[in-house]
Amino acid sequence: MTQTSNTESQSVLEPIADPGFVLTPYVKQLADFALTYLKADLPVHFSGPAGTGKTALALYVAAQRKRPIVLMHGDEEFKTADLVGAEYGFRLKRTRDQYIHSVTKLEEDVVKRWTDNRLTVACKYGFTLIYDEFTRSRPEANNVLLAILEEKMLDLPPAGGDENYLQVHPEFRAIFASNPAEYAGVYTAQDALRNRLVTIDMGYFDEETEAAIVKSRAGITEADAKKVVKLVRAFRKEGEGIYKYAPTVREAVKIARALKVRKLKPSKRDPFFRVVCLHVLTNEVHPVDLKQTKSTKCGQLLFKLINRYG
Where are the domains of the chain? Predict the structure, then answer.
């Protein structure tokens, strides 16, 4: 493999899968499809709500390629230079000539120093690019990706080296992730870019996968993980139109970790468990007296479900 410079190596991750990653049949199927598309040189786009495991799955899939990984996170302030590279600082070259011992010739040359950013590093060396939340970046900043994905050419600024174009390495692959929900700081991806991607819509995990994730991430028993997951899934289903944001497996992990710290089990008789569920699953003001909470729609539903599954 081509050796990277020290600066370039700082932006590269080793292709090592998270040992805690949960690989159920449902997740394995998604990963297998994604790997098939990548082998066919098709960029993959994981699209789904927050907390559905898009980034974790992207990192797992990328690790299976056994190629170094370059991870980028979309940012509204990104410009093309933040993806490709730019001139940072100066390089001083000094030549001292004393061919004739009685004569000293001194030459100094100061030039601007070009530094490759992460996209260029991935394209140059054939790494796997993960562009997380790419719709947070402005569409004009992402335009540079169009030629990379289609013509396999990276258009460099005039100061970007000896040539204005970089031939993309044949092993280069790209994985994108985004949240389709419209909220502050998110832009609609241009059709030209979306047309180049194979989009895999990721909804919520199946119950088996969510329970396995909660057990792995929180370190609780399988039985307790299943109780928490059943409660969160029921609240997500029956509370639609009541809550502001749909709870995901991420909320189930939060509840389970809090119980783990207190060495408690999910029980409807435990006041701590009830309050933790209230804090994690609702966006309401949390009064000290839980009786006041029962008068709200969220509180009524939540405590009904706790009594059912706790």
Answer: 6-84+117-201, 207-309
pLDDT of residue 132: 94
CATH code matching the domain that covers 6-84+117-201, chosen among 3.90.1150.10, 3.40.50.970, 3.30.160.70, 3.40.50.300: 3.40.50.300
- The reported pTM is 0.80
Q: Tokens at residue 107, please?
A: 């030459």
pLDDT of res. 34: 97
Query: 281: which 2 tokens?
Result: 């699953």
How high is the pLDDT of residue 1?
Answer: 47
Q: CB of 12 within 8 A of CB of 69?
A: yes
Angle in degrees, 0-180, between the axes of helices 249-262 and 271-281, rounded to the nearest 10: 150
pLDDT at 174: 96
Beta pairing class for 85-97 and 69-73: unpaired
Compute the distance between CA of residue 182 and CA of residue 135 in angstroms, rounded to an integer: 10
The predicted pLDDT at position 108 comes to: 65
Residue 302 burial (10 A CB sphere; 0-12, 13-18, 19+): buried
Residue pair 4/125 in contact (Cβ under 8 Å)? The answer is yes
When computed from its CA atoms, the radius of gyration of the chain, rounded to whole angstroms, is 26
- Over the range 45-75, which residues count as b (16 or more CB within 10 Å of their CB) and which as e? bbbbeebbbbbbbbbbbbbebebbbbbbebe
Cβ-in-10-Å burial (0-12, 13-18, 19+) of 200 comes to middle
Report residues of the chain scoring pLDDT below 50.
Answer: 1, 160, 285
- Contacts by residues 77-82 (CB-CB < 8 Å, ≥ 24 positions apart): 78/137, 78/138, 78/141, 79/141, 80/140, 80/141, 80/143, 80/144, 81/117, 81/157, 82/117, 82/141
- With contact defined as beta carbons under 8 Å apart, do 178 and 189 qualify? yes
- State residue 260's pLDDT score: 96
